[in-house]
Design goal:
This protein has an 8-stranded mixed beta sheet with strand order 12-11-10-13-14-15-16-17, with helices on both faces. It has a 6-stranded mixed beta sheet with strand order 1-2-3-4-6-9, with helices on both faces. The chain is globular and about 90 Å long. The chain is of the alpha/beta class. The model has no long low-confidence stretch (mean pLDDT 97). It contains 28 helices and 19 strands. Helix 1 links the parallel strand 2 and strand 3. It binds (2S,3S)-3-hydroxy-2-methylbutanoyl-COA. (2S,3S)-3-hydroxy-2-methylbutanoyl-COA (T1G) binds next to strand 5, helix 3 and helix 11.
C-alpha cells in the first residue's frame, strides 16, 4: 500500500508527491500526509523549501467527493491550508493535469505556483451544488480580481494554466519536466531570499470594489441559475472577500459552504456526477472487448438531424461524408451547417480557424458508393420503417466489412432494421437529440444481435464526440421517448380537466424543467407526434381515454413554432396564449363530459413527473436501462430535467418511493390503468429500499 503522500528531499528541497489515483483527490490520508510532510520539511534544517506535486496524470483534482455526506474525518482541508500558511520556508505548488476545487485551493495557499502549459486550473464546486469551501472564494479574487474570479467560480469551468498565468494566478509556466522546473523555481526563491508571500495579504484587488460588480453579476445569471442555490452563494462569498478581512471572509465562506452541503441540491448534483461516469460502464461486455477506431464517418440524410450529427464528427476532427440523394437537400443541409458554424463564430464561442477546419472535414455526396470506406455510417432519414429498411439494405451492400451501421431512429425497432442486412451484429441505434450538435445526450440502443465490439465502439464514440452516452435496450421509444409518453399524456389530460397550456408550462418550469411540455411540443413540431399517433390509432383500445386536443390543432395546420401557431400563437419566438386553443380545450372537456376544476401546481408536477418515475421503474424491470442513474442521465442531458433534482429516479428516491407509490395509487383509483404502479416500484417502496435495492 503506497503512502498517499510520498516524501523525498532533493538538493535541500522537500518534495511532497500526492499518490492517490486516479485523480489525487484530497482524501483523509492525503490531507494527513501533506501536513506530516510539511512538518518534516519545516523541522529539517537541511531543507530550505518544499514543492507539492501530483503523481500520475494530474495535480489534486479536488476534495474526495466520495467523502461528502459522510462524517468528515480530521484533519480537515482548512487544517492543511493553515499548515501551509504557517510554513517558515517557501512552498511551491507544481501543477499539471487538472488542478481543481480543493486542489486549486491548496495551490492558492502556497507561496508560489508553477504549472505545465497543458495544465488546467479551476473551481468547479458549483457543478456539485457547492461552492469553493476552503478559501477559493477569498484567495482567487485577491489574485485575479472579483470579476474574473466570479466568472471562474460561478461557471465552475476550468481555464488553461497559460491563461491563469496571464491573469496572475500562476507565477511561471514550466516547459519540459515539471518537477525539475518546480525545483529550479524553489531554488531561485531561496537564492533571492524572497520574503514569503501569502495571497491572504494581497488586498489591492479586493479593496474599493464597486458593489455594482455583484448586483450586475446577479442579474446576468438570473435565467440560467434559476432554481439553483450554489451560484448565488458563490457570488455572496466572493462579495464577502471585498468587504471583510480574510479570516472573517473564510468563516463566512464556510458558512455558505455548509448551507450548500446540507442542501438536497448537493446530493442531487453529486449523484449526477457519478451517474454520468457510471453510464459509460457496460456490465456484461467481455473484459477484453475493443472499441473499433473511428477515423472516418458518413451520415445519411442532410436534414436537421443529419447536419447536426455530421458537425459532431467534424468538431471531433473526424472526416465525415454527408450523403443525400437529393442535390437540393444536400446543398440546403451543407448551407445550414455553414450557417450554424458562422453563428458560433459570430457569438465568439468558436474561432474562425476552427470553423474552417471543421468545414474542410465535411464533404457532401449523392452517391452511396462514396461512403463505403467509412468506419461508421449514421442513418438519419425519414422516420418510417419502410424507408429505413430500404436504406439499410443499400448500406449492407456498399459499406466495408466491419463498418458500424448505426441508425438515428428515435422510436423504431432496431432488430427489424438490422434484419434488413446480413450483418445485424454491426447494426445499432445511435439516437442523437435535436439540435444534435448542441444536445449532450447520445442514447445508444443495442439490438438483440449488436456485437460487444459494436456496443463498445459507439459508447467510446460518445466520449470522442463529447457526448454523454447511455446504453438502452430495444423497445418502443427506448428510454427517453418511452417515458415521455406518460408525461405528455397526463399534460394533455390536465388541459381537459381544468388547466391551460401556460399554467402547466409555468408549473413545470418552476419545478425546474428548461421548457414545459406545450412550449417544447410547439418547438419540436406537433406534426411529428401526430403522424406517429395516426400510425398507431388502430392499436388503441376503444375504451382507452385519449385527448384529441393536439390532433385538432394539427388538423387546423397548427404544427407549432414552424407554422406560427400550435398550443400557443407565436410573435417571433414568444409564445402567446391563444383564445382559439382555449375554445378547443373547453370543447374537448364538454365532449369528454369532464367538469373542469381548479388544479394545483403540486398536482400538475405529480401528474406529469410521476409517469416518468413509474415508466422508469418498468424500464429498469425489463433491463432496458442498466441502472436508474442511466435514466437520470438520459433526462438530465436529453430532456432538460433540472440537475439540482438529480433526475426523475433520484428525485423520486429523495421524496421517498413509498410516498411516490401512495400518490400513484391515489391516481390509479381516480384515473385508471395508466396509473397502475410498476412492480419494481411497489417492491422497492414496500421494502423501504432505493432503486438499486439498497
Ligand atoms: N473525488 C472522488 N473521485 C473522483 C473525483 C473526486 N474529486 N474526481 C474524479 N473522481 C473519480 C471519478 O468518479 C472516476 O471514477 C475517476 O475518478 C476518473 O474520473 C473543498 C468541496 C478530474 C476532470 O469537482 O471533473 O474540492 O468512474 O472519469 O474524464 O472546495 O473527474 O473511474 O470509478 O471523470 O479524465 C471539486 C471532479 C471537488 C472535479 C477527470 N473537484 N472531477 O476527468 O476522468 S469539491 C471536482 C472531474 C471540492 C473544496 C471542494 C473529472 C476530472 P471511476 P473521470 P476524466
Amino acid at each position: 500500500m503506497t503512502e498517499p503522500v510520498a516524501y523525498a528531499v532533493k538538493d535541500g528541497i522537500a518534495i511532497l508527491t500526492i499518490e492517490n489515483p486516479p485523480v489525487n483527490a484530497l482524501s483523509q490520508g492525503v490531507r494527513a500526509g501533506i501536513i506530516a510532510g510539511l512538518d518534516k520539511a519545516d523541522a529539517d534544517a537541511g531543507v530550505s523549501a518544499a514543492v507539492i506535486i501530483g503523481g500520475g496524470r494530474t495535480f489534486i483534482a479536488g476534495a474526495d467527493i466520495k467523502e461528502f455526506g459522510k462524517t468528515p474525518l480530521q484533519p480537515y482541508l482548512p487544517d492543511v491550508l493553515k499548515r501551509i500558511e504557517a510554513m517558515t520556508k517557501p512552498v511551491v505548488a507544481a501543477l499539471h493535469g487538472t488542478a481543481l476545487g480543493g486542489g486549486f485551493e491548496v495551490a492558492l495557499t502556497c507561496h508560489w505556483r508553477v504549472a505545465l502549459e497543458s495544465g488546467q486550473v479551476g473551481l468547479p464546486e458549483v457543478k456539485l451544488g457547492l461552492l469553493p469551501g476552503s478559501g477559493g472564494t477569498q484567495r482567487l479574487p485577491r489574485l485575479i480580481g472579483p470579476k474574473l474570479a466570479l466568472d471562474m467560480i460561478v461557471s465552475g469551468n476550468p481555464i488553461p494554466a497559460k491563461k491563469a498565468a496571464e491573469l496572475g494566478a500562476i507565477d511561471e509556466i514550466v516547459t519540459g519536466d515539471l518537477l525539475e522546473g518546480a525545483l529550479a523555481y524553489a531554488r531561485r526563491v531561496v537564492a533571492e531570499q524572497r520574503p514569503l508571500r501569502l495571497v491572504r495579504d494581497m488586498n489591492d484587488k479586493v479593496s474599493n470594489v464597486d458593489p455594482a460588480v455583484f448586483s450586475d453579476y446577479r442579474k446576468s445569471i438570473e435565467r440560467k441559475a434559476r432554481g439553483f442555490l450554489g451560484p448565488w452563494r458563490c457570488i455572496d462569498a466572493v462579495e464577502v472577500a471585498t468587504k471583510l478581512p480574510m479570516d472573517e471572509g473564510l468563516l463566512k465562506e464556510r458558512e455558505y459552504f455548509f448551507e450548500c452541503m446540507g442542501s438536497p441540491q448537493r446530493a442531487a448534483q453529486i449523484h449526477a456526477f457519478f451517474a454520468e461516469r457510471e453510464a459509460a460502464k457496460i456490465p456484461g461486455l467481455p473484459e477484453d472487448v475493443q472499441a473499433k477506431p473511428i477515423k472516418s464517418a458518413a451520415v445519411l440524410g442532410a436534414g436537421t438531424m443529419g447536419g447536426g450529427i455530421a458537425m459532431n464528427f467534424a468538431n471531433a476532427g473526424i472526416a465525415v461524408k454527408l450523403l443525400d440523394v437529393s442535390q437540393e437537400a444536400l446543398s440546403r443541409g451543407l448551407g445550414v451547417i455553414e450557417k450554424n458554424y458562422a453563428t458560433s463564430v459570430a457569438r465568439g464561442s468558436m474561432k474562425q480557424e476552427a470553423m474552417d477546419r471543421a468545414m474542410k472535414l465535411i464533404t457532401g455526396t449523392q452517391r452511396f458508393e462514396d461512403i463505403g470506406d467509412a468506419d461508421i455510417v449514421v442513418e438519419a432519414v425519414f422516420e418510417e420503417m419502410g424507408v429505413k429498411k430500404e436504406v439499410f439494405g443499400k448500406l449492407d451492400k456498399v459499406m466495408k466489412q466491419g463498418a458500424i451501421l448505426a441508425t438515428n431512429t428515435s422510436t423504431l425497432d432496431i432488430d427489424e432494421i438490422a434484419a434488413s442486412t446480413k450483418r445485424p451484429q454491426d447494426v445499432i441505434g445511435t439516437h442523437f437529440f435535436s439540435p444534435a450538435n448542441v444536445m449532450k445526450l447520445l442514447e445508444n440502443v443495442r439490438g438483440a444481435k449488436s456485437s460487444p465490439e459494436t456496443i463498445a465502439t459507439v459508447m467510446a464514440m460518445g466520449k470522442t464526440l463529447k457526448k454523454v452516452a447511455v446504453l438502452a435496450g430495444n423497445c418502443d421509444g427506448f428510454i427517453g421517448n418511452r417515458m415521455l409518453h406518460g408525461y405528455l399524456r397526463e399534460a394533455n389530460f390536465l388541459l381537459e380537466e381544468g388547466c391551460s397550456p401556460e399554467q402547466i408550462d409555468r408549473a413545470l418550469e418552476d419545478f425546474g424543467l428548461a421548457m414545459g411540455p406545450f412550449r417544447m411540443s410547439d418547438l419540436a413540431g406537433l406534426d411529428v407526434g401526430w403522424r406517429i399517433r395516426k400510425g398507431k390509432a388502430h392499436l388503441r383500445p376503444k375504451d382507452e381515454r385519449y385527448s384529441k386536443v393536439a390532433d385538432q390543432l394539427c388538423e387546423l395546420g397548427r404544427f407549432g413554432q414552424k407554422t406560427g401557431a400550435g398550443f400557443y400563437k407565436y410573435e417571433g419566438r414568444d409564445a402567446v396564449p391563444d383564445p382559439v386553443v382555449k375554445d378547443i380545450i373547453l370543447a374537448a372537456s364538454r365532449e369528454q363530459g369532464i367538469e373542469r376544476r381548479e388544479i394545483s401546481d403540486e398536482e400538475i408536477v405529480q401528474r406529469c413527473m410521476y409517469p416518468l418515475v413509474n415508466e422508469g421503474a418498468k424500464i429498469l424491470e425489463e433491463g432496458i436501462a442498466i441502472r436508474s442513474g442511466d435514466i437520470d442521465i438520459t433526462y438530465l442531458f436529453g430532456y432538460g430535467f433540472p440537475v439540482y433534482r438529480g433526475g426523475p429516479m433520484f428525485w423520486a428516491e429523495q421524496i421517498g418511493l413509498d410516498k411516490v407509490l401512495a400518490t400513484i395509487r391515489g391516481f390509479h383509483k381516480i384515473h385508471g390503468k395508466f396509473w397502475e404502479p410498476a412492480k419494481l416500484l411497489v417492491e422497492r417502496a414496500e421494502a423501504g429500499k432505493g432503486w438499486s435495492g439498497r
